[in-house]
């Protein structure tokens, strides 16, 4: 049942990303990328190989539909690689063997901070690779911040929808 629920969640996020959110572009600063939420919400005890492989697959699928030339794949794999570190920072004092990184396990504030940091890092890496330079750091940071806030809103709605079920 849990596997079916996870597959349905992944397909839902990919569908929303590919057919709805890829069509959002507001003044070049708001690009919502919600697919990364699936990687962030993978159980913390998932194997590194599984997490990195899934991140690669998810990023590659988004790249194929967006024509991203590997930027989503690279950013997704990078976040999957950093996920254990990010999770440890926000777990602080919680059970070492947490089965989940959602609101139920981390608590509302820690979960929100964890998701926002993950989204911001993902967006920053994605836009840095896209621009292939860090020369305009302030616009890069602004674009990452605005897109992260915009994405965070939709990820929060998705997480609350799952929390209620």
Please summarize what this structure is:
By secondary structure, the chain is mainly α. The chain is 72% helix and 0% strand.
Which structural class do you get from the secondary structure elements?
mainly alpha
How far the N terminus sits from the C terminus, by CA atoms, comes to: 14 Å
Please mark out the parts with pLDDT under 50 across 5 or more consecutive residues, or reply none: none
Number of domains: 1
Radius of gyration: 15 Å
Q: Report the count of strand segments.
A: 0
Helix count?
Answer: 7
Mean pLDDT: 85
The percentage helix is over 70%
Beta-strand content = under 5%
- Give the helices and strands as they follow along the chain: HHHHHHH
Tell me the overall shape: globular
Give a short account of the largest sheet.
none
Word description of this protein:
- The chain has 165 residues and is mainly α.
- It has one domain.
- The chain contains seven helices and no strands.
- Helix 3 crosses helix 4 (71-91).
- The longest helix has 28 residues, at 137-164.
Pick out its properties.
single chain; 165 residues; mainly alpha
Topology:
Blueprint: H1 2-19, H2 36-40, H3 48-66, H4 71-91, H5 103-106, H6 108-131, H7 137-164
